[in-house]
Amino acid sequence: MQALAVFPSQKRFGLLDIPEPQLSGATQVLLRLCEVGLCGTDREIASFEYGDPPSGADHLILGHESLAEVVELGREVRSLKRGDLVVAMVRRPCPHAECRACRAGRPDFCVTGDYTERGIKGADGFLTDYVVEDEKYLVRVPRALADVAVLVEPLSVVTKAADQAHAIFDRLSYDPGPQRGLVLGAGPIGLLGAMVLVANGFETLVYSRDSEESKPAELVRSLGAHYASSTIDPIEGLGTRWGQFDLIFEAVGFAPLMVGATQMLRANGVLALTGVPPKAATVELNAGRVLRDLVLRNQVVFGTVNAGRRDHLSAIQHLEQFMVLFPESVRTLITHRVPLDEVPQILTQKRGIKDVVEMTRAA
């Protein structure tokens, strides 16, 4: 069978033939891949910015946003059956006994950094026909969501951030009244973030470099949210025109924008950071003002990455809600479905909102 892999030491990527996997453990599950979503992480790995092959291998099979169908079960698998649709979690725990997060089944909070991630770091991904995965890393998805379920993994990143933000808001001992949310970025993560905010009753603004007439801007407005383009509204004046926000969800990884967002927080506001800027990125910062506001206005800034089982389950619940509130907007997120052999070309160029690789149709 074919797979799409990157060879970091050779600075190349492309298709290769690999043998079909076989079950070797009692809790393992054989999966037939249905769809795999592509994102900025895949493009960065294909540009050799990062990405680590499994130990002893010279290549890394790409793809971490999966939707698959169960075709064979190990003898001790109890939570799944043949024909179930599943999404695989991405991160696997580190081996260190002192990492309580990993030992508790939350490798997304790993403290050692020695975790592995399928399709990203030390473990092959899902851009192939069949894979074997352990039952404990699989989350069953209702078949009614089949045409959009490939969005569960990226949405889990958003729901994890949203749930943590709400936990922070719970420290308030009063009803804060109507809340306003700002999303920085109109890629798939940002647009999913906007859907979560709208669904939770936030008056929502999405800010991005795309024009006011772009497809992302149209999608934002179809949700009942507002859209502002950086081509018209520089970040320095955004607060003057739009005011301040209770919750800011950042999904761009652009350091100046991430830092500038702190100036648009209301008192008691929360800023959730999901983007990863380059290590060498530098920003001019009025540290005194930022730190004074964090203290005197009870503001919170936190970063979040990856997601656990609870976050995937929350993502599924949100996706079901979205398919009631704005089904066509959700479907519009997926702008292209392509076969595996077109992926090398797609990884070198950005087009549309979300590219999805169609591996095989679910039976």
Number of domains: 2
Mean pLDDT: 95
Total strand count, please? 19
CATH class of the largest domain: Alpha Beta
The main sheet comes to: 7 strands, mixed
Q: What is the distance, rounded to the nearest whole angstrom, between the alpha carbons of the first and last residues?
A: 19 Å
Give the class from helix and strand content and strand pairing: alpha/beta
**Mind telling me the C-alpha Rg?**
21 Å
Assembly type of the chains comes to: single chain
The CATH superfamily of the largest domain appears as Medium-chain alcohol dehydrogenases, catalytic domain
CATH fold category name of the largest domain: Quinone Oxidoreductase, Chain A, domain 1
Q: From the 3D coordinates, which CATH architecture of the largest domain would you assign?
A: Alpha-Beta Complex
Beta-strand proportion: 25-35%
In the predicted model, the low-confidence regions spanning at least 5 consecutive residues are: none
Number of helices: 11
Shape category: globular
